[in-house]
Amino acid sequence: MSYNLTYKPFGERAILIEWPNKIEDDILHDILGFKEKLFKLLIKELLYVNHAYNSLIVFYKNKIPDFEAKKSTINKIYIDKNDDVSLSVIKWVIPVCYDDIFGLDLTELSIEKDLSKAEVIQLHSEAVYKIYFIGFLPGFLYLGGLNEKLFTPRKATPRLRVEKGAVAIGGNQTGVYPVASPGGWNVIGNSPVSFFNLNNDKPCFAQPGDFIKFKPVSLKEYNDIKILCEAGVYELESEVIHG
Amino acid sequence: MVRVLKPGFYSSIQDFGRVSFQHYGVPCAGVMDRYSAGMANVILGNPPDLAVLEMTITGASLQFECETIICLSGANLSPKINDDEISLNKPIEVKVNDVLSFGKLLSGVRCYVAVLNGFQTEKVLGSFSMYKGVTNNHLLSKNDVLNITLKNSFIVNKYASVKLNNQYLESEVVEVFKGPEFDLLMPSQQDDLRSNQFTVSKNNSRMAYQLEERLENNLSPIITSPVLPGTVQLTPSGQLIVLMRDCQTTGGYPRVLQLTESSIDVMAQKFTGDLFTFELLDEVG
């Protein structure tokens, strides 16, 4: 499937490419396929390519002398793209402790949603989330797939400090804070896993297109896993899914 | 080695940043004013993007534990070696135990110190630029020791100095292009952006400069999308935010303007209360 893309200059060296104004798996896959192709064909000219839900930025090493010419080069690459790119992706199982000690907003959220805490945990951990992109903070995964029953507005006053590993819900999104940071999302648990680790060849284990599933663990299991993570020997449960 | 006797208000080691790790959510970071930092390096015969010391508003106090040649550029913070005043934009030889210190701020906001071959502090993801959560330190602290290489036989022409155009330190014009959402603004809002004067608020940092004046706003937030240093965002309350070098990689506010790359340098030399206007340039290309 091909979309009608919009191309806009973004400063002197970048072009912003936009897909329809929606968050959808098909758009993500179209972006990932196009991004891969741009990388291969234009690697020498580009500083980087990065994407979000429905947009892709193509950042050149040099100033763009003729926007229209670059635009038609890129669009030709888009139209020529083979649609049969099948990417293998990985489903990562992320342990989360939903104990009250971490889930600072779990009680309030469950009352607001007229659900028991167990139901909130069940709805949050049974879903399989798709990783759309990484942004906001180093290693922060933007996930799609939160159950509508858990949609909760961001807190009116953001917390000055949300702990590293905090698992939280903001609007129609859920995510894990990779480092301590100010934040306005509703915190329901914490994961002992590091989402951004500079000691690894790839600082983030997961990439866009992969899946995340949360697995509830007890406080004791959490502490055990945390020790293994800090020692750098915890192996995440994962499963390769062929596209 | 260089020992930090006093760190100053906000001092860090920066090069031109880590550009290729945006897909991990890692900000570019890097020197706020590339022109000044590049100039300080080039005068020493360094490539423009070597790691320099960036100081903000107040200078650091540094003791050199080896001989080297340094060059200062950007804001004039009344620099001295021991008790002698020194010039900006000139190679300066320093000897063992010399102390570089600073006094009154005379112009600009950010001053750069380049050393022969650059500062060699912790390098992460291809860059020396300090950033919280990426490098171990994000600011210099008292008694930090900064690694530099010993002066080699490299000969610097002591009389090499560059006639600089320093006007950008005081410029009240910030050149911009339309941002991706500019055309969604009403003509009256577009006119306001073009003709009004704006003031840098007290909320200005390496991450972003918030402006005092508000712009009437009826645009909805956008689906989270990439942003760049120099992107001007418009929040639902009508606040304008100019993103700077430490900005996040993506954002959800409409991007109404985009500063030219040289205007990011101009903005980097502005501080609380400084006034400016945006000058909208024709479309790129």
Automatic annotation (TrEMBL), chain A:
A Gene Ontology molecular function term of the record: ATP binding
Carboxyltransferase domain segment(s): 5-206
Record has Nucleotide-binding as a keyword: yes
UniProt keyword terms in alphabetical order: ATP-binding, Hydrolase, Nucleotide-binding
Superkingdom of source: Bacteria
Spans traversing the lipid bilayer: none
EC numbers: 3.5.2.9
EC top class, as a word: hydrolase
UniProt-recorded name of the protein: 5-oxoprolinase subunit PxpB
Designated gene of the protein: pxpB
Automatic annotation (TrEMBL), chain B:
Keywords: ATP-binding, Hydrolase, Nucleotide-binding
Domain Carboxyltransferase, chain residue ranges per copy: 23-285
Top-level taxon in the UniProt lineage: Bacteria
Name this protein carries in UniProt: Biotin-dependent carboxyltransferase family protein
GO molecular function, one term: hydrolase activity
Organism: Aestuariibaculum sediminum
Pfam families, alphabetized: CT_A_B
Keyword Glycosyltransferase: no
